[in-house]
Amino acid sequence: MTSGTTDVAGAPRVPVPAHVDAPARGSAPDLAWLDWLRVLAIVGVVTIHVVGSTALAPWARTSRLGWLAIWLDIGFVFVVPVFVMISGALFLDPARFRGTGDFLRRRALRLLPALVVWHLVYWAFRVVYLDQEIGVRDFLESTVTGRLYPHLYYFWVVLGLVVVTPVLVPWVATAPRRSLLLAGLCAASMPVLTVALRNGLEAAPVWVETPWTWWLFYLGLYLLGSALRDVVLRGVALVAAGTAAVLLGALLTWQWRNPAAPGWLQVVSPVSYYGLGVHVYAVLVLLVARALVRPGGVGRVLARPAPARVGRVLGAATLGVFCSHLLLVPVVAGIPALGGDAAAGSSVQLVARVACVLVISYTATLVLRRVPVVRSVL
């Protein structure tokens, strides 16, 4: 694709400067790593929510089952930051941007129906299946405070980032990668420093989170996704990044809710989506995935046309899996053969629960995405 102000259809586009390589839009080999990374991330999201009750059990750190749950839980703690960086890599790509109106219209049609429908679904689920009393006022209050169900706040994060994207893309199109990287690091330092300050002060500062401001804490990661999109590590750099990711993941797993972890570590780098360690962990995972899943990479088979098409289908279904899987978690946990309780009774039960929720939610999503109206919320 050549740079310019219009594409072949004549739609206005952001100019792509000479120093920026514009990849072919929709090219499967170019985007295969992002599709497969989305699949990895949604597997992580499902795993976290399935094993969470077992990882939180009082006996977790004194049993093999508990340690397995903790490793699975915190080992995937990179998933939300990675999802945000994936969005940045896609939405902030000037070569894919066809104008503010087109971008906002497509994103609104993708996100707003899903936001409304899934908030109503989980309200009904809590009232009918979980037998909880939640009136209209409580429903609205829990919606705007992100407490209706654990994962629904993420809709507001993405919506906020989408709204500011048309303002960012023209700058991204002309800024050198170094400037974009610096801006991303500076913005990412805001939640990192805020959390560290809050944890370190006896009188914690006021902490305000609303649907209109959640995106601010993820803006840095959003920019970093764009800045790092075309950074391909090789050789020693790739080995170092992979090793660092494994070691940092192990450190975070050991640190989480561990009384033996030093206080300064809990202050400076808490195990939180806003924490320094989790930010670095997510960046390393993104860089390693980018380096591996490409022609010539160790995972090059995933970038070949046929596997790339599979990755694209599975990647496109991640919204549906993300939205629906928590409906299955308490249902699957209640099956007697799988423990019949919130916490699993064995490692086999724990892994089987993860597999059940993944397979059912993915299968249902892939099938229902063939239904035109239903597809709009999946």
TrEMBL record:
Keyword Cell membrane: yes
Ranges for domain Acyltransferase: 32-366
GO CC terms: plasma membrane
GO biological process: enterobacterial common antigen biosynthetic process
GO terms assigned for molecular function: O-acetyltransferase activity
InterPro entries tied to this protein: Acyl_transf_3_dom (IPR002656)
Subcellular location(s) per record: Cell membrane
Topology in the lipid bilayer: Multi-pass membrane protein
Membrane-crossing segments per the record: 39-60, 66-91, 111-129, 153-173, 180-200, 212-228, 235-254, 274-293, 313-338, 350-368
Alphabetically ordered keywords of this record: Acyltransferase, Cell membrane, Membrane, Transferase, Transmembrane, Transmembrane helix
Major localization class: membrane
Family under the similarity heading: Belongs to the acyltransferase 3 family.
Protein name per the record: Acyltransferase family protein
Species annotation: Cellulosimicrobium sp. ES-005
Lineage: Bacteria, Bacillati, Actinomycetota, Actinomycetes, Micrococcales
